[in-house]
Design goal:
The chain is α+β, with helices and mostly antiparallel strands. The chain contains 16 helices and 48 strands.
């Protein structure tokens, strides 16, 4: 993750803003609602974005200016918006209402405080899904005289129209981009004064208007909810028994990749449930707290921790030392290494393995002796090496020197060099740094790096000449075609060289090259196969359970599309944003259940913490799960079901086997491929990379016998009218129309999503809630099936909101409803408070079932029936 920890999302209401959130249970997949981030309309289909809008304003020469908004839900379908642009000196206010069942209205009041000349102006930018433009909806059209736009096809009967009165200053399509429409309030000059513009959005056909996420979850004031009972130093549950057989980590020898599985040296298979320790948590935590957090991590069920952002310039001190004093990155700081040593020792003692990154966001300096540094720096004193490392040999040497210093460093607490410690489970060469989609573009002729472009172009021409490809198309990194062959080859050459260096240092554990992330298509996978594992990163938004795989992609689909035949799959980052999503307690269950069914090998949430573990004032953040009661409500439950293999591996294997032409000549992603979205809803999905003459190093694994081999990315494996999917094992069910996900196994039974007003019956439990959105998990702790178990863990997830300015403790929504559990007589129900004391709670017993009632007042995320 390369996002600075101080980044904040605009807090638009008492509840979190959500980018995309359809209404569960609607009769239509097509929905229009108001985006709580900016008060503008958004269109979704099956939970996926079809049209998004934003505000943009520019000063002279298209210099972007900041426009800051605050959104408020006043009541059902009535909202207000306040906006301010300091650079252009104007304010905006809007009153937004649902006028009719199919009409939304905006009354925009603009107040320009001074005249601004020589500016570009601005207003609203509407972005339409190109796939829909080529398909059902057609291209959006302009209304005459700058009065707005409409979108739809007459033969579909589906139309969206947004009309402005009086006409706007300008409505036009961005040059060369028919999917981006700009509707300007202001052009040059902006005259001082007030004006009002009214907008009406009308829909026809099978499109419905729906409420915002805040309205769906409920408009109660979170300040009325109880404070969380979470102690950040201790765990509310104790799953350390999962790690007890592995203490100290490494006792079974080094981790190795064997076919599609991770194993220890003694051939014991291993499955990792992990998280990330990042940035300040690594270097500013007191020694005693490092030891304490290692125990807590074990109790929460983690057995793998990635040490991340150790080299990033915004972290001070980092592995190079105090950022105000360090003038180069050629030496590692002794005290910073001591802190890392202690983390590794403390985690190892608790049976937790460690993942090491060789590069995250290291900023090279002028003193690092980098060739052509000035053209990269462009006047700055630091350079991000991403992309450039693939053609600049001096950067490669700097990366190798760091790897040697880091991996040969002897841990003062274990007496072992990192490379010789079997508690180190895996190594990553470079974080989120691929050529095939992202950073190949940094080397193009128009990027102002002539020497690096010269090296890039020479390599492209040589590759084109060698394989008789179009020289003009081979260097075009932004296009599919020959460029994807070349970029994979250039990336693989770097990977092979770095891997050889790591092996020469004595690295024995699996090596990942970089990750598939940020919209990478399948054409990014070949170069990643140089490593021992394929690593993926995936971030979602709200409403993941409601993504209709027939039309829309979710964060899970992007992980599934990275599972290559013959390689283990690791996921070193998963999460959803913006913080604080009210449904985030669903994610651990959805991720863990799917990962177990798909056979993924390591799942690491991002992140446990980016802040130091110091007593005193604490903040809430998307990258601090350690003090987030919503995520921690279900993270231990997810760890238990995943590590214990409560969910069975799929019995059916679907292998997508694209031809070279399909793989390299077109963008194939979960966004545009129904096959990638629907196959994993039923069975295990894998990708078989094709033999490619231009890439002789690509050694595809044999497709397993019995696999169903599929070739068409447009093929769907679900019925066109499906509203839910059930896995081939029958244990996982996701109803995207209702927004409900269930897990029904002998040892774990869970329901999460829009449970309010419904009755959910699983093997040994029955759930009724009045709380609209919740997670309820019941698990056996003694290994006996539910119904027979005499020791059960109950995990309850609801909304959790930090206090103003992201302060803790959180306010947590109390659950209202009831839970029936089949279990032997004689058990007692307990809750654990913040002081780790057990408190007895009432539970009636009748006809072999315990009935637990939740009154909507008492709050506890974890209960024990034993």
């Amino acid at each position: 993750m390369n996002v600075l920890p101080l980044r904040r999302f605009v807090r638009v209401s008492a509840l979190a803003c959500l980018a995309l959130w359809p209404l569960a249970g609607w009769s239509s997949d097509w929905q229009v609602s108001v985006d709580e981030q900016n008060g503008l309309p958004m269109v979704t289909r099956g939970g996926g974005p079809m049209m998004k809008a934003k505000f943009d304003f520019w000063a002279a020469d298209w210099s972007w200016t900041g426009f800051y908004t605050a959104f408020k839900v006043n009541g059902p379908y009535h909202y207000t918006l306040q906006g301010k642009n300091k650079e252009l000196d104007f304010d905006l206010a809007a009153d937004i209402r649902k006028e009719q069942p199919q009409t939304l209205s905006w009354a925009f009041d603009l107040d320009a405080h001074s005249r601004k000349a020589g500016v570009m102006g601005g207003g609203m930018v509407f972005q339409f899904d190109p796939a829909q433009m080529a398909g059902e909806m057609g291209a959006p059209q302009l209304l005459p005289d700058n009065r707005g736009w409409w979108w739809g096809k007459a033969d579909q009967g589906r139309r969206i129209e947004m009309r402005f009165d009086p006409p706007l200053a300008k409505v036009y399509f961005e040059r060369g981009n028919p999917s981006e429409l700009r509707a300007f309030f202001y052009q040059d000059p902006i005259s001082a004064g007030r004006q009002q513009i009214k907008a009406l959005l009308n829909i026809t056909g099978d499109i419905e208007l729906g409420p915002t996420a805040s309205e769906r979850f409920g408009l109660e004031d979170p300040a009325s909810w109880p404070d969380d009972q979470l102690d950040w130093r201790t765990s509310p549950v104790d799953l350390s028994f999962l790690n007890a057989p592995e203490k100290p980590a490494g006792k079974r020898g080094f981790v190795k990749a064997v076919g599609e599985q991770l194993m220890f040296e003694d051939n014991t298979p291993v499955r990792f449930w992990g998280t990330n320790l990042s940035a300040y948590s690594l270097f500013k935590s007191p020694d005693d707290e490092i030891r304490q957090q290692a125990k807590r991590l074990s109790a929460l069920g983690f057995n793998l921790v990635r040490l991340h952002h150790h080299d990033s310039p915004w972290v001070s001190p980092n592995v190079f030392g105090d950022g105000t004093l360090v003038r180069d990155t050629q030496q590692l700081d002794a005290e910073s290494l001591r802190k890392l040593d202690l983390w590794i020792k403390a985690l190892k003692d608790e049976g937790i393995y460690i993942w090491l990154d060789m590069h995250v966001q290291r900023a090279l300096t002028a003193n690092d002796k980098i060739d052509d540094f000035k053209e990269l720096a462009k006047g700055e004193n630091r350079v991000d090496l991403k992309g450039y490392a693939y053609v600049n040999s001096s950067i490669q040497q700097a990366m190798k020197r760091f790897a040697e210093q880091y991996l040969t460093h002897v841990n003062e607490y274990t007496g072992l060099a990192y490379k010789d410690d079997p508690a180190i489970a895996a190594v990553l060469i470079t974080n989120e740094n691929d050529l095939t989609q992202h950073y190949g573009n940094a080397l193009l002729p128009d990027k102002g790096v002539p020497r690096h472009n010269q090296l890039y172009m020479a390599a492209a021409k040589a590759f084109a000449r060698q394989h008789e490809l179009s020289a003009d198309r081979t260097w075009r990194a932004w296009e599919h075609g020959p460029s994807k062959l070349f970029l994979n080859d250039l990336e693989q050459r770097f990977n092979a060289d770095m891997i050889a260096h790591l092996h020469s240092l004595g690295v024995k554990v699996p090596i990942a090259t970089t990750s598939t992330w940020g919209g990478n298509g399948l054409s990014a996978l070949p170069a990643l196969t140089a490593g021992d594992v394929i690593d993926a990163h995936s971030y979602g938004a709200g409403g993941q359970l409601e993504k209709n795989p027939l039309t829309s992609d979710g964060m899970i689909d992007w992980i599934a599309a990275a599972q290559v035949v013959g390689k283990p799959l690791t996921v070193t980052e998963w999460n959803a944003e913006p913080f604080p999503l009210p449904d985030r307690h669903s994610l651990p269950l959805y991720v863990a259940g799917t990962a177990a069914h798909q056979g993924w090998d390591a799942m690491l949430q991002y992140a446990y913490s980016q802040q130091a573990f110091n007593p005193g004032w604490r903040t809430a953040d998307n990258w601090h799960a350690y003090n987030d009661p919503a995520l921690l409500a279900t993270l231990p439950a997810a760890a238990l079901l995943y590590r214990r293999a409560d969910v069975q591996l799929a019995s059916t294997r679907y292998v997508f086997a694209p031809t070279p032409a399909t793989l390299y000549n077109q963008q194939v992603t979960p966004r545009n491929s129904p096959l990638l979205r629907t196959a994993m809803e039923k069975g295990q999905l894998q990708i078989a990379l094709p033999q490619t003459p231009e890439l002789p190093w690509l050694k595809p694994a044999a497709i397993p016998a019995g696999a169903q081999v599929l070739h068409d990315p447009e093929q769907s494996l679900l019925a066109v009218d499906a509203t839910e999917s059930v896995t081939d094992t029958g244990e996982l069910r996701r109803n995207w129309q209702q927004g409900i996900y269930t897990i029904d196994t002998p040892l774990t039974q869970a329901a999460t999503g829009w449970l309010g007003g419904r009755s959910i019956s699983l093997g040994a439990i029955e759930v009724h809630t009045q709380t609209p959105y919740a997670s309820v998990v019941v698990q056996s702790l003694d290994g006996k099936p539910l119904g027979q178990s005499r020791e059960l863990l109950l995990s309850l997830g609801t909304r959790a909101e930090p206090k103003a300015d992201y302060k803790t403790p959180f306010n947590v929504e109390p659950l209202a409803g009831s839970l029936s559990i089949k279990a032997p007589a004689g058990l007692k129900l307990f809750a654990r408070d913040a002081q780790a004391q057990l408190k007895a709670l009432p539970a009636a017993y009748k006809d072999g079932h315990y009935l637990i009632t939740f009154d909507g007042k008492y709050m506890s995320n974890w209960l024990f029936l034993k």
